[in-house]
Design a protein that fits this description.
Strand order of the largest sheet: 1-2-3-4-5-6-7-8-9-10-11-12
Number of helices: 3
Order of helices and strands: HEEEEEEEEEEEEHH
CATH class: Mainly Beta
CATH architecture: Beta Barrel
Distance between the termini: 22 Å
Largest sheet: 12 strands, antiparallel, barrel
Radius of gyration: 18 Å
Oligomer: single chain
Number of strands: 12
């Protein structure tokens, strides 16, 4: 019931938002990911979507995702992600706030929820290079409540208006006991996306790595392939300008590479 309500609310936002800004645009995507967790593996199928617009001086973006993950050693779970962004927008600079929620559910098990709040921004350096960053803090309900903090920096380079390569690096903490059990975390990522000329269909590939010191023996690595159908705007560069942010919740989105 909870997942249904979340998805219904997100769908209502997607229907209503285009009327708010003539320059609104976004995408609907399908992704497959393979995650290596030590000697184990997990496969994820996810549908995701985003819509946004940035009439100066205000911009907005909404994200939604629904997927299923199956772990080779046994067990599978569904997951829903939602995010909302509001930001101050100028010709080449954006600064605003974000709320991200991720919910996991498994048969005969209690739901696991995490939520993060943060600030985020981006700046265009020339016509082809974009720097972005975010600082988030929140709580993850997983056996015990985990307090989280994350600082992420990203960069994207547009080889052309329809071909982008990028990367991210992040550092954070997980705190399960008022600071005494604090664990440092590291997030790394590489990605590329290419949109067909004259057609709003793009293909993307990404690699994400997540490491938690003294908790995970090895880093958790996710390789992902996906396709996106864009709407509202023409090129990949224009679509990214309408939906400029990719801020993730603190733990599970990073652990399994969810959008």
């Amino acid at each position: 019931m909870k997942k249904t309500a979340l998805l219904a609310a997100a769908a209502a936002l997607f229907v209503a938002t285009p009327a708010m800004a003539q320059s609104a645009g976004g995408y609907v995507g399908l992704n497959y990911g393979n995650t290596e967790i030590g000697d184990d593996e997990a496969d994820t199928i996810q549908i995701d979507a985003a819509i946004g617009g940035n009439h100066s001086p205000v911009g907005f973006q909404f994200d939604v995702g629904y997927g299923q993950t199956e772990i080779d050693s046994g067990g599978d779970f569904d997951h829903v992600t939602l995010a909302g962004h509001v930001y101050w927008n100028t010709e080449n600079f954006r600064l605003g706030a974000v709320v991200v929620n991720s919910s996991l559910s498994e048969d005969d098990a209690a739901d696991v929820d995490e939520i993060a709040y943060g600030i985020e921004g981006g700046i265009d350096i020339g016509s082809n290079f974009v720097l972005s960053g975010s600082y988030t803090w929140g709580e993850t309900e997983f056996l015990v409540d985990l307090d989280t903090q994350n600082l992420d920096i990203g960069a994207a380079f547009y080889i052309s208006d329809n071909f982008r390569i990028g990367g991210t690096v992040g550092a954070g903490t997980l705190d399960a006991g008022g600071g005494s059990d604090e664990v440092d975390t590291t997030t790394l990522g590489l990605n590329a996306e290419y949109q067909l000329s004259g057609m709003p269909l793009s293909f993307r590939a990404s690699y994400d790595s997540f490491d938690a010191d003294d908790t995970l023996t090895d880093s958790v690595d996710t390789f992902k392939l996906g396709a996106r159908w864009a709407f509202g705007l023409g090129t990949l560069r224009e679509r990214d300008a309408a939906t400029p942010f990719d801020t993730r919740a603190p733990l599970f989105q990073r652990l399994y590479g969810f959008n």
